[in-house]
Amino acid sequence: MSEKKETVYIKGDRNVEVKEREIRLGDVVSLECANSAMAAKLKCLKLMTIPEQGEHRAVVSVLRLIACIHEHYPNVDVQNMGETDLIITVENQKTPGGVAEALKVAAVVLITFAGSAFSIMAFNNDVSTTKLFSQVYELVTGSKSNGFTILEVTYCVGLIIGILVFFNHFGKKRFSVDPTPMEVEMRLYENDIATTVTETYARKGQEKDVDQTGHTGVSGN
Predict the structure, then answer these.
(1) Which domain holds residue 86?
(2) Where would a tag sit more exposed on the chain, N or C end, judged by fewer CB atoms within 10 A?
(3) Of 70, 94, 118, which residue sits at a domain end?
(4) Sequence-separated (6 or more) residues with CB below 8 Å from residue 57
(5) What pLDDT is attached to residue 81?
(6) Hey, is 118 helix, strand or coil?
(7) Which pTM does this prediction carry?
(8) Which residues of 58-72 are buried (b: 16+ CB within 10 A; e: fewer)?
């Protein structure tokens, strides 16, 4: 009767942040195995070390993770349930002080406010909103508009309400459980960045992968 073959399931996200430059298998993937003792040992396996000098990021193929497991447990069946390439980034532990953080927030708010206001004014000027409101007011009331009528007021209020409803966000309050358009755009941007980083490392031959013999290469690289 042949010995029962253990199966290990691993799942890694595309972007992984770590705090230490010496990276263990359990730092970058979730791992499940019926043999709890084996699972605990696998999580402690050293995968690689990101050097102090140079980039604080590395792109690792899932094949390297599988090869690392097979070096210690050759008969284990590894099933990958996650990404095929992992971008591992060493998290910067230095955080800016309160004043620096407040200045950054103030600068972003000011730039966003000025940019949004300019865009709205440019659009209104392009479509002659003021002239249109004046004509509508004169058509309905029969008198000349002074530029500050019920039409302008309701337009401003409606603009604010429309922006809040569209972005589904005001301060810390959400109007629904759906992701906001800004969050969707940020996720798309992050996906584009991850794809570019992965392809760039692969083209430069800097992706951490197994060699043609199936080994992970020199330990620590």
Answers:
(1) 7-94
(2) N
(3) 94
(4) 50, 87, 88, 89, 90, 197
(5) 92
(6) helix
(7) 0.67
(8) bbbbbbbbbbbbbee
Work out whether strand 77-80 and strand 7-11 pair parallel, antiparallel, or are unpaired.
parallel
Residue 156 lies in a domain: yes
214 in a domain, yes or no?
no
Name the CA dihedral angle for 177, 178, 183, 188, rounded to a multiple of 10 degrees. 150
Burial class (CB within 10 angstroms; exposed 0-12, middle 13-18, buried 19+) of 127: exposed
Alpha-carbon gap, residue 207 to 221, rounded angstroms: 11
Q: Where residue 59 sits, what CATH number does that domain have?
A: 2.60.480.10
> What angle, 0 to 180 degrees and rounded to 10, lies between the N-to-C axes of helices 98-126 and 129-141?
60
CA dihedral 74, 215, 219, 12 (to 10 degrees): -70
- The pLDDT value recorded for residue 79 is 92
How many other C-beta atoms are found inside a 10 Å radius of the C-beta of residue 103? 12
Burial class for 37, CB neighbours closer than 10 Å (0-12, 13-18, 19+) = exposed
Do residues 114 and 154 both lie within one domain? yes
